[in-house]
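<tokenise_the_fold>
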Amino acid sequence: MPKYVAAIDQGTTSSRCILFDRAGKIAAAAQAEHRQILPRAGWVEHDAEEIWKCVEHVTAGAMEAVDATAADIAAVGITNQRETTVVWDRRTGKALHNAIVWQDSRTDSICRELAGDFGQDRFRAKTGLPISTYFSGPKLRWLLDNVSDLRRHGADGEVLFGTIDSWLIWKLTGEHVTDVTNASRTLLMDLRTLDWDVTVLNALDIPRAMLPRISSSSTMFGTIGASSPLAGVSIAGDLGDQQAALFGQTCFSPGEAKNTYGTGCFMLLNTGEQPIDSTSGLLTTVAYQIGDRPPQYALEGSVAIAGALVQWLRDNLGIIGQSGDVEALARTVQDNGGIYFVPAFSGLFAPHWRTDARGAILGMTRFTNKGHVARAALEATAFQTLEVLEAMEKDSGVRLTALKVDGGMVVNELLMQFQADLLQAPVVRPAVIETTALGAAYAAGLAVGYWQDLEELRLNWQVDKEWHPHADGGARSRMYEQWKKAVTRTLDWVT
């Protein structure tokens, strides 16, 4: 009998393979970083072939760590950075351009053209999304317009498009497929029919022949080929990373929410079997679909820069040696010294959706030092989360009683306490914080009967630590007002 379910977690900065046992505990893991390619201001790319090599490497590494063979693996789940866009040659399987990353803002002029007289919400009723550089559709349109012969071969179905999950499934199995969660982030899928929308495809001038088949999140996607240590194992789960984290946090009921603190910051609220249209700057998205059951929907608030800001302090300013040093540096000061850091490096996502914004540090004096900058950087993630939560409560009518959290930044206790103080609600960290990979594993394991039902998964979830609010309410309100004032200063920067 197989011992594990494997999850391939392909993220913005690294790829991981994690083996989970029946209790949802980590048995083995391997990780490898890939390059961030920045050709010019606002452009962010990845080498899709490099990502593939990293996935091969970490898969072998995780298997070797526990001397596992393919016979020990019940199924494989894939989770991925979502809107990042890849095009490749059907015959050779080679990527034809660097992947354009979800953070990339080169499609701003395309988005303005699409909005035209219709406005940013031209496709929101069908797709749940505003027109934004964030999503895959405009990125694919840019590639079609700028890569020689791509449009001609795309119309013939000789060039294929996919988000990273589709790219990896193709490389592993030869199947051209995606799931409803990833498809719902392209700006090309109708939320209710769960199919590519012809009207939107025509507006973006995208050939349907390039697009993958859309499947549920927990089903048989294909069998892994002979060149992999997972040869013969089925890929049976596929979820975009934030939906995977929602699933891994066992937020299966309407009203349950999680927030992932990674490169960006993403809060999702399960809204059940009916999509809720947002009037407060949130995204309506597919949360997951299990087999042939009705899909579950979610409201999402997406923040572009969270952990990436800590990396920026490390790589661009050099004021910390490694990301984990930021908490100690922030603790060298008692407060932020009156400064606010709005990390609008590629504009602002939810709830503002302003591509004209750019990053700024406000309120500096001669008193300001690097400890204040570090503290303000951490606080920026918490302030952005509060903005999203307020929009979520307004749209859903549900008052948050506790927030489940995951992602790399949740080990930062200073940030978690500040977040609880701002939200005026408990912040709860699970025992297994790798909930993105866990969600993909759960989806795959359900499809093959490794786990029987959602209730069995709920029983696996355990609390590691909770933070409760204890800050003065007046101080909290004053700081939040200053944050909102700082945000206004970043707008209309790009003309």
Observations:
- The first helix runs from residue 48 to 65.
- The two ends are 61 Å apart (CA to CA).
- Residues 126 and 193 are 9 Å apart (CA to CA).
- The mean pLDDT is 94.
